[in-house]
Every structure is written in structure tokens, then in C-alpha cells.
Design a protein that fits this description.
By secondary structure, the protein is α+β, with helices and mostly antiparallel strands. It contains six helices and ten strands. Helix 5 runs antiparallel to helix 6.
Length: 271
């Protein structure tokens, strides 16, 4: 499911505002406290196997920096420094984004950015990291109980706790996608839905097109996802209907094996 979603999205996400002097232009500027002087990069992120693309290169001087890019609609970017592998994720939902972080705390949820979308993204990342950690802990307890050959009741308790946490995690993902007010965050959250059954996810994804009809990249994703689901359902898979077998009968007329459904059939094998 993860590959399905990742393969479906090959475009980027940006926002354009009518009042901009240059359509689609946005600036990310601010301070990374305690950061040594170095280059800083503004990169476009892709939800595919394509590597991030550098859109602008700036300089950190005494902790301050500024980078600029142009885009047709709201999208997902990252701020990366030359001398550190850590990076910060940014959504361009405003013309001017004021960025603040500390070099001593380099992680995805560390920066403060003056926009609603970035505040929501930070909250989502923090929540999802907490839930994934709790789910991994429950999984470890279940595996340990099984490996130690504990009593059936002890294993059942561990399994019920894991199943409950997993169900809550999936519900959180689908509800978040279904209620977020930002199209880019919705697509970002889809990246965590690989464990959710396609039939439960499809309705949520189709709802995105109705809520964000003007977001080109998101609607392209929805169309590609539905096409792949259609192809997936057309192929034989576990739990699905086996393809019918057709052949001519003894008189040369078309005959389908499904025509024998509900009938007693004598099968004669020759060796």
C-alpha cells in the first residue's frame, strides 16, 4: 500500500496568492540559534523515488538566513544545512515565512514557523511519532510474550492491547486525512497509511478531491490512486474472485466453468 501511494504522487505541492508581486513567490527567512556560518538550502520534496531538488541556496550568517522560491501552488519543502544531516520540513502557505529554531535541537518538530499549516504539520508529526512509538512498544511486548511461550491468556492480553493500539492508530490517520484543512498535510499524512486497507482508505481519498478541488497535485494523486485501485481489483488476489475459465464444449460452443456452479460434476482423470 505504501508503494501504491508513493508511486501515485510524482508532482510537488505549492500555493499561489493573487496579491503577490511575483505569482507563486515565497520567502523563508529567520534564525537558527547557535548555528555556525554555513550554506543553507531550500529544497523541493517529492512523494516518489525522485531525490529532493535544490531551489535556492543561501548563507547562514550569525544564525540568520533567507531563501526564496517560486511555485504555482502550496507544496512541501525542506530546509537543509550544509554541515548537518538534519533538516526541517516547511509548507509555503504564506508569502513570507518566519523561521525560528535552535541548532542544539535539530529534529523535524523543532522549528517554529508563523503559519497555520506549519503549526498543524508540527502538531501532526509530534502526535504520529508518539503513537508509532507506543505501537512499537506494544508489538515488542507481544513478540516477547510469544517467544517466551507465556500462557495463552497472557499472549491474548498482549495481542488485544496491540490490536487496540493499532486500530486507534489507523483511525487517527484516516480521521486526520478526512478533517485536515490543508491539502499538503493531507497528502503528507497519506504517507503513514500503508497499513490501512485500501477499501477503508479509498473513500477518504476521494473526499479530498471534493474538499480541495483547486489543488492540482492532490487531484492528480486522487485520479492516479483510483486508477491503480481499479487495476488492483481487476487482478486475482487473496480473498478475491478467481478468474473464470472459458473453453469450447464438445460441440464447439463457448463454455464457461462458472456455468457449473451449484451442479454435481463427474470428473474423469486419465493417466
Amino acid at each position: 500500500m505504501k508503494k501504491l501511494l508513493i508511486a501515485a504522487l510524482c508532482t510537488t505541492f505549492f500555493i499561489s496568492c493573487n496579491h503577490k508581486s511575483e505569482p507563486g513567490k515565497f520567502v523563508v527567512s529567520g534564525q537558527i540559534k547557535n548555528a555556525p556560518d554555513q550554506k543553507i538550502f531550500l529544497e523541493e520534496l517529492f512523494f516518489s523515488e525522485k531525490n529532493p531538488e535544490v531551489l535556492d541556496t543561501g548563507e547562514i550568517k550569525n544564525g540568520h538566513f533567507s531563501v526564496t522560491a517560486t511555485a504555482p501552488e502550496e507544496g512541501l519543502y525542506r530546509i537543509r544545512m550544509e554541515k548537518d544531516s538534519a533538516f526541517f520540513i516547511v509548507i509555503n502557505d504564506k508569502d513570507e515565512l518566519n523561521f525560528s529554531a535552535d541548532y542544539g535541537k535539530l529534529n523535524a518538530d523543532a522549528p517554529t514557523i508563523n503559519s497555520a499549516a506549519n503549526a498543524s504539520l508540527k502538531k501532526f508529526i509530534t502526535s504520529i511519532q508518539t503513537q508509532r512509538t507506543e505501537l512499537e512498544n506494544k508489538s515488542a511486548v507481544l513478540q516477547q510474550a510469544t517467544a517466551a511461550k507465556q500462557t495463552d491468556s497472557a499472549i491474548a492480553v498482549a495481542k488485544n492491547e496491540f490490536d487496540g493500539k493499532e486500530a486507534a492508530y489507523k483511525t487517527f490517520i484516516t480521521q486526520y486525512i478526512d478533517t485536515t484543512k490543508d491539502p499538503v498535510i493531507a497528502v503528507f499524512a497519506l504517507g503513514y497509511s500503508q497499513s490501512i486497507e485500501p477499501n477503508k482508505l479509498q473513500q477518504v481519498i476521494n473526499g479530498l478531491a471534493k474538499r480541495f478541488p483547486k489543488h492540482m497535485a492532490l487531484n492528480s494523486l486522487v485520479a492516479q490512486y483510483n486508477q491503480m485501485i481499479k487495476q488492483y481489483n481487476a487482478k486475482p488476489h487473496e480473498g478475491g474472485m478467481a478468474p473464470d475459465i472459458n473453453m469450447p464444449d464438445t460441440s464447439g460452443k463457448p463454455f464457461a466453468l462458472s456455468m457449473l456452479r451449484g451442479k454435481y460434476v463427474l470428473v474423469d482423470f486419465w493417466a
